[in-house]
Biotin/lipoyl-binding protein
Amino acid sequence: MTPHQLEVTAPLTGTVLEVHVTSGQAVNAGDLLILLESMKVHVRVDAEHAAVIDAVYAVPGAVIQRGDPLLKLSVPGTRAQQSTTPEAVSDAAHTSIAAFHKRVAKSLDSHRAEAVEKRHTKGYRSARENLAALCDPETFQEYGQFAVAAQRGRHDYETLKTTTAADGIITGIGQVNDQATAIVVNDYSVLAGTQGYYHHQKLDRILLVAEQQKLPVIMFTEGGGGRPGDTDITTVNSGLQCASFGSWAGLAGHVARIAVANGYNFAGNAALFGAADITIATQTSWIGMAGPAMIEGGGLGSVTPQQIGPIEVQQSNGVVDIVAKDEIDAARIAVKALAFFQGTNSVFEVAEQHRLASIMPENRRQTYQVREVVQTVCDVDSWLELRPHYGGAIITGFARLNGQPVGIMANDCMVLGGAIDVAAGEKAARFMQLCDQFSIPIVSFCDTPGFMVGPEHETLGAVRRLAELFRVGAQLRTPFYAVVLRKCYGLGAQAMLSGSTQHPNYTLAWPMAEFGPMGLEGAVKLGFSKQLQAIHDPQERAALYDKLLAEQYARGQANEVASVLEIDAVIDPTTTRDHLLRCLARQPR
């Protein structure tokens, strides 16, 4: 086959950097012929075919124009056009990629084996293990992975890349329940999870992204608060210009925010935890607005970290909404909790509703398990209770009805007979606000003798704190439905109904429900005191009292109250779920 000559021309204007061939030399396809430089970029001119070099015109150092001849070669067989498309190369290309992968590796658990082992020895997980438990596989995009502590003036930079990986906080966006979610995971293995300069910058950045893109946030808050050891930033005096805390709190009502605590959570980390919409803490959590050093520095004595805000304290005072067994359980709960803010589930299971016919005792003074009512009415295994160890006279939590999220509040007659004390009132008001902020319909199961009363209770600020239920109830925009299970008395009952029997979108009652403006015994004694005092014979007085009380009870029975339109309907308990589903179906989604 006769060879054809082909002239190779310059693909662009530049300088001849290197000539790699000579006349008479045989080359293979892909061999480097000439290396050019243009605008500080190296451009290869390669052989596209096996060929023999006939002549070389290019000279190293020569300035050439696009189209200038560089060399001539003979190609065996069919003539082919030499490509004039430049291919930019760098001698350091592969070196840079390798350096990049090496840099990434320094921030991963595989290169921080000692730090990870320390966590495992305590029974804890690494930050990246917690991250993996939250996100759907292969969905996380990290922000600021190469950050290190602002301590290059104190420590070797290469060492900081591993010992202060990501500056102690992993931030980014991943899919949780198949929906984009901002993720923040504090890394206690980096300087005890303290909050440094770049740590805060990363936190501020992801919170801004969450605000702009309306993304919910899950945050693991383990750490010891502010870090005074960052020395590279010489222009920061007080650090009070830090926007992280205000930015985090400012997301309230705009996106769902879930915080998870494990281990020590002090100072700034505790502030972030406490400001979340839902707080989850493991059984090995200590949470406090200051750690041991600040307490001792304030002249308040020397304490150990384990003496500050143990879980037993923080679950009973309402700081912690949900207690998890460990970090794995906490991540699972966080994912489940977030789902209530992400919309309707298409798959659900319905419990046997006939159980509701036998839950309520015939004896009106006998207690029962209100959680059994809630868990029967709602989708199976959908109930997630908040603050069960605080304000127990009212239970609060999320559940689903045909997959749709709803907020549940219910009086628990096992605690104070269902009387609403300040803790229960505060808990319910906060919960109603949370549901309202995210348009989650509320279902209230009422069985209360009213507000808790007495001189001792007034020392707790009962007037102000219980009145908050009326303020919140009056301002609700989300749908509110009431189901009166049994007792519905006085101001406490009105608070459970968001203000009155007429305020809910629909007010239902079970047949055994009973109503009254106050406790009926007290109502008789107040309303008929003169008639009772006028009877001197104790037996006659007692007989009149019993007669008047029976009349009050008869007037307050559910059927009678419905007959004068003070409630909307009396229903068979076994149809409670059906009625609530009809209510939800007519509400805009």
Summary: The chain has a mean pLDDT of 90. The chain has 21 helices and 24 strands. The longest strand covers residues 278-288.
